[in-house]
Amino acid sequence: MGMVFIIFGNNLFDASVGIANFNKEPQLEIYPNPASSNVTLAFNFIEKHEMSIAVTDLLGRTIETISTKQYSGGETKLSIAQKIVYQPGMYIVNITIDGKVISRKISIE
Fold this sequence. Notes:
Layout: E1 5-8, E2 11-14, E3 19-20, E4 27-31, E5 39-45, E6 49-57, E7 62-71, E8 74-80, E9 89-97, E10 100-108
Antiparallel strand pairs: 1-2, 2-3, 4-5, 5-8, 6-7, 6-9, 9-10
């Protein structure tokens, strides 16, 4: 039996398994949060993606970046606040995956 795809708006669904193939955020964990240092970003990708990370303070100043790189499918772990000392406070982690930005807040104690 072949695959059956159904289009709803901008989403493409594989009707054979009922899972959206487009516009789905990857599984993402950020821990510990709050942290005192060294924050882990863990991703579980189904396929290859280009990703970069920029951490900003609440005033929009860039604190740390991880340049764009291609990551293969499966689990990927990256660390921030490992080589740079973050002052206590709130930060925004901006994760760009294939041009789409996902933002998460982290707290450094």
